[in-house]
Write a structure and sequence with these properties.
The chain is α+β, with helices and mostly antiparallel strands and about 190 residues long. It has 5 helices and 8 strands, in the order βαββββαββαβαα. Strands 1, 2, 3, 4, 5, 6, 7 and 8 form an 8-stranded antiparallel beta sheet that branches.
Amino acid sequence: MSEFFDALTDEHIAFIARQPLFFVATAAAGGRINLSPKGYDVLRVLAPDRIAYLDLGGSGNETQAHLAADGRITLMFCAFDSPALILRVYGRGGFVVAGTPGYAAMAAHFPKLPGARQIFEIAIESVQTSCGWGVPKMTLDQPRETLVKYHRQANPEERLARIAGRTRSIDGLPVEVQTLIPAFDQ
């Protein structure tokens, strides 16, 4: 039922491209396991052994803190239509924060979305597929635009001040503060 691969195949890449949602999981020693759903057009397969996603500001920044502390990351994609399939990408991740060297080059792979704070890049160590027969069939009604709308309407100075105050994760791990990139906040 389960099969492992060293890298993404063309079929895996096509499957990932069709998914409107994916999940990100990270953990650091002694801390909580972080599991987050991700929507929007924010994921790119850069190579069969490399994947990246654009991260928008949200409720916290646990993924960044966990990657800085531990590096392990798992992405999961589920088919909510037919045929059933679950695809997991296991790897080691890093990040480039908005406004730091290297960010603009990586950001060129993604749409310009307000609230962009960093890009996570994952070096794939293995890929696992499984049946997904226990995942319900569902249809996508429409994307939820609330987060982008919130960031588009937010006052940039207030946003930066709020972010500057978040220097620790919920488990007390350090997080890097972003610099506002005006081109992404239009």
